[in-house]
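Quick question about two entries, pasted in order.
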Amino acid sequence: MRLADLCDCVGVQIDPSAGGSKLYVGLEHIDSGRFICRNMGRSDEVQSAKFSFQPGDILYGKLRPYLDKAVLAADHGICTTELLVLRPKDGIDPQFLIGVVHSPDFVAHAVSGTTGSQHPRTSWTHISEFRIPAFTPPEMSLIARVVWRAHDALVANEELTSKSLATKWASLQTVMTGGVRGEPLKEESIGSVPASWHVNRLGEIAEIAYGAQAAVANATDPSLGTLILTNVNLDLDGHINLDKRRYYKIPVSHRERLSLKKGDVLFNWRSGSADHIGKTVYFDLDGDFTYSSFILRFRPHRSVTSRFLFWWLTHLRRIGFFTAQRNVSSINSVYNASLSATIPIWFPENDEQNEIVGILDGINSKIDLHRRKAASLDELLKILLHKLMTGQIRTADLDMPQFVDDSVVEAA
């Protein structure tokens, strides 16, 4: 069966200003690889002609099809003309059709037919020729139930992650402004802090060092030297991301200063984006690592534990401290070593530091667990879509009652 045997491409244009406010879906509202639209706009927020859609339509992103953007419409509305409106033919389950256009084989097919280098687009003419086995309607419905079960589990896990992230940031604000002992507060330039907490400038309690000055954008060969962390390896949520790996040969004379140790705190001091100034991570990786010149390395030597310092600096970035205090040049926002040495570090005694760190690290562990589960579920969904849509696995081979009710199984 071709995609054209399963659906029609309808392109009914409508003026957003006509007929009152409607739901609006743009590419920015669609998450890659997800079957449903969790965020939408309104028609009074957009201009120029749009396509109308109805419940059961598939809104498929033809621009940059490798992004795998397509959703099943649950209501009436309008959408950008960068979305193709695919309407299932009579007897075709729309929940099956959304699985077809998210299958890895379909994505590869769509990408193979793109035109344009700056804004690559696929077309209905091309994707309409995509072929799948000629499943019966009951088997289509069974396949839909299986992949939607995996999809819904993935989305639920992502929602748990979002809720846990909200809890983390709320907890960070609470413990860094009120502590955990219920004591009186005092007002300082950064806001309220517990009355018993001490204050030092960062330069008084930690060694501050710049990273290596080296052009490593193309240094992807591990034989070149030690793995070097750059700005792109520091995530906004405080994690070290090693998806992009670069290498640097540390000069012998600089090895002590440039070699990272577990417990070092890394601080993004220079960036073209103000949002990334003050981005902080805690280094705890095994192996040999160094760091680039746009990163400062803080190594506490008294009073404050490394993990508490990480959370305190994360708190300061969250409340906008670094964007308010940074030096701004014509190109970059900077928070260099001299300025970083003046950062106020408010802190309690070590036992309360450890208690605060325990609370925040505990939440972080739950978030990491949710993310690992989401990654596994995402991979499972892709495998199911590939195996089921190509007929490599048939629904008769599965223990179907765990996915659907008996009436659907009997119909097949």
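Here is the second entry:
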Amino acid sequence: MTGPLVVAIVLSHERPDRTVACLRSLRSSLYPNLEVVVLDTGQAPGSADDIGRAFPGTEIVALEGNRGYAGGNNTGLALALRRRADWALLVNDDVTVAADCLSRLVECGESERRIGMVGPTVHHRDEPRVIQSAGGYLEPDWSASFLAADEPDRGQLREPRDVAWLSGCALLVRLELYEQIGPLDERFFCYWEDVDWCLRAHRYGWRVVHEPAARAWHEGGRTGSAPHPAVAYYTTRNHLLALGKHGAPLRVRLVAARRLGTTLLVWSVRPSLRSRRAARTAMWQGVADFALGRFGERPSTGRGRSE
């Protein structure tokens, strides 16, 4: 094999058909030195058998329950480190990648020693030519937003560039970085753990780079669509957690508090936004749980999403 060893970690959650599609794209990868490991959360009974029938010989590791995106991928990262891999590719089960995606990510990462994370241009799966994410940035209240979100891909992104953070749905991570900055913070459970990880990488002097020539496709709604209550809960609580963890200045906290308060008020009183009231209730729960120091999986649901 040529090239550094990459271990792809696929966190399989509730739909084995999605995992099969993800594995099919990884099996078509042009990168020669790739190992694939599926981590099965056990949320879909029989999923490991379904995946095994579709791809005989695939390594499937059973997790002890659902530990969210952070906990599941931490298991995979530790496994990749034991195998002396150079890089780990974190891939959500609802992601597919282009055949040359990994080759381009590795080429970018290997071009400079201080590049610790590399991410592709992620497109909407149901609109394959529309960008979902080209890396991310922090707004004045330190909320996390995608660059180029919902823009038609006309080739406007040409050169690799440093970004504040990368989506964890498809993320190549140098394992030397993982050893230095530590694992994903499992308090987040899902949502914001990728942002937190990237911010920690920056603090240690690592570069976080978007490689536009690498392409992936991810399920998910467009910006502006009504959030699922679970998403509203985790993004609210975990944003507040990140503000405290990373020492946000008072001015940032004030902007964040004003924006959160405005959203809760508008979603409560505007008739046209009644469809968002379940999300509003979930946001209130997120604020309360942050204040009470309740982290990890959302207590009232017994379930969580992988990303």
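Reply: The longest strand covers residues 207-218. DSSP finds nine helices and twelve strands in the chain. Hope that helps.
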